[in-house]
């Protein structure tokens, strides 16, 4: 126990936040506290590490707080203890930032950071936070391939799918039919799907749609569909062949051009004629020739429409042949609108957040791509998403522009771009204030305080002192050096005066520092600790030790006193002494007081001694461990481990409670013996003995011991002789 003195409380709280579109993503708060006496330089305590989950390629802000009961300015220091090294924006501010590193799917990366806060006297406290960086899975981009025609004359067609995974994950594939006349599919777990003609009913011209799904194994699933169109009524001719080209995909209102090529075995020319088979009627630019055009019709709603045209070729002497030209018309899709966000002006070596966006009323599957167009090159993080982050560079001139472009692309590869300009300016560095070291001052003495300031840019500095707390003192605060008279403090007490120095440069940037002055009397009472409370048995000898500290290092005298007259202190004038606890009928508390004098003032501290009545403790009986013995040997029973916490004389009584009766040599001895009985081969005998231990105060205790007797095989005896008649 301590009386008087000064106790300082340091409290640290750690937070972690991750910024997503400048919104605070995670906050973790951890509070730790500890007590530290003046003059010590460390603070130790048990701590648990808090774990915070964040995601890769996002900006993370560590937030530390330090609280000092003395209201002193604290110095912060961050240190990475473990994990993949990252660069903090600063290691000496409460809120440094870093970019979470990339993490492969199925893995994590653990980063451990320690914050240490230190007050002006060197007292410090630390706390640790553990950051678990998790991967962000990207959905694979899937293409089921081009739509195709199939004819009875073609054995099979193949839909060739493809997929791209931004995380380079291994993909699994699955095909399924989603519409049209159902057919049997084989090998549906491959990237491609083969469809054979014999499985198709060509009397039914309903298109068949097949969906390809890709799975990256980490929850990312993408899909796309392709359509197969069955067609039967084609003219085939070995002497002439024509080709109307692949299926075309266009938007409503676009001009569509259809070309046909052909050849004959004898090289004669081919003439062509066109006719529309299915779909909304359109007007062809011509119905004869190897090239025709038309305007894709307007669609109703958001669904696409298939148009098909038959082109027939004729060559004199070779005959006729035909082919199908197919056009899929999609709803109109205008380009997206990109917005790279407003222009910004920032300082050097700070994290800059670019927030982009894209809008497209016809398409929600937009892709974003950031790139730097001009200025000092920087590294962009999270480049494939709407937002990117970078650290502004150091510049030689007063300002420099960095230009970035955001490109937004829709699923039809229509795109728009927008630029944003970031102006990096060379900032003015604020001055640094130093109010001097905290110290003690004497009551009513004349005090001089010297502060100073440093400006990194060499600007002229002005000074301003103010009082934050404590008894009011008077001084001229416009100079670096101030003087005043210390407040009055009574003996055995202390007061605090907290002053603040503010230094300001020519651009009105400033810094502050605080000075804590502890006002003490010319003489302080000793600080006394009588030691911890104790519990002792009656009629026993104990010891105490009184420790004391005097600020002025005056010689100290000690005096021990007891609140009970029958409590005997052997050397009451020594700081450490022994005592004899009195006899008590029931347990009682006795207060011992240690008084310490420095010749001027006296201080005291007390402890409580609980004198315990010992007649209530139980006897402990111990008959010894169970034994396994042989037959017909001497066996010892030992009760010597029995004891009485009250230290009363004990008596003993041995009794056999079960088994074949044996003769106990001395039933009242603490140690006795008997001879084990004879046991037939392949049998055992179990004997149980009870030990009663008792005193003259009607207290008694019991214990038992089990003796298991095994047989000992005796060898036979042979005798040989002879006789003659």
Description:
The protein has seven domains: 7-134, Immunoglobulins (Immunoglobulin-like); 141-230, Immunoglobulin-like; 240-330, Immunoglobulin-like (Sandwich), CATH 2.60.40.10; 337-425, Immunoglobulin-like (Sandwich), CATH 2.60.40.10; 432-520, Sandwich (Immunoglobulin-like), CATH 2.60.40.10; 527-612, Immunoglobulin-like (Sandwich), CATH 2.60.40; 627-710, Immunoglobulin-like. A hairpin with a 5-residue loop joins strand 8 and strand 9 (124-134). The chain is built from no helices and 56 strands. The termini are far apart. The strands form 19 sheets. Strands 1, 2, 3, 5 and 7 form a five-stranded antiparallel β-sheet that branches. Strands 4-9-8-6 form a four-stranded mixed β-sheet, with no helix packed on it. The radius of gyration is 49 Å and the shape is flat. It is mainly β and 725 residues long. The model is unreliable at 1-13 and 15-47 (pLDDT under 50).
Q: How is the topology of this model organized?
A:
Layout lengths: L6 E14 L2 E2 L5 E8 L12 E6 L3 E10 L6 E8 L14 E3 L9 E10 L5 E11 L6 E3 L4 E3 L5 E5 L1 E3 L7 E8 L12 E5 L11 E8 L5 E10 L9 E4 L4 E4 L3 E5 L1 E4 L6 E8 L12 E5 L9 E11 L3 E12 L6 E3 L4 E4 L3 E5 L1 E3 L7 E8 L12 E5 L7 E11 L5 E11 L6 E3 L4 E4 L3 E5 L1 E3 L7 E8 L11 E5 L9 E10 L5 E11 L6 E3 L4 E4 L3 E5 L1 E3 L7 E6 L5 E2 L6 E5 L7 E10 L4 E11 L14 E4 L3 E5 L12 E8 L12 E5 L9 E10 L5 E11 L15
Parallel strand pairs: 4-9, 11-17, 19-25, 27-33, 35-41, 43-50, 51-56
Antiparallel strand pairs: 1-2, 1-3, 1-5, 5-7, 6-8, 8-9, 10-13, 12-15, 14-16, 16-17, 18-21, 20-23, 22-24, 24-25, 26-29, 28-31, 30-32, 32-33, 34-37, 36-39, 38-40, 40-41, 42-45, 44-48, 46-49, 47-48, 49-50, 52-54, 53-55, 55-56
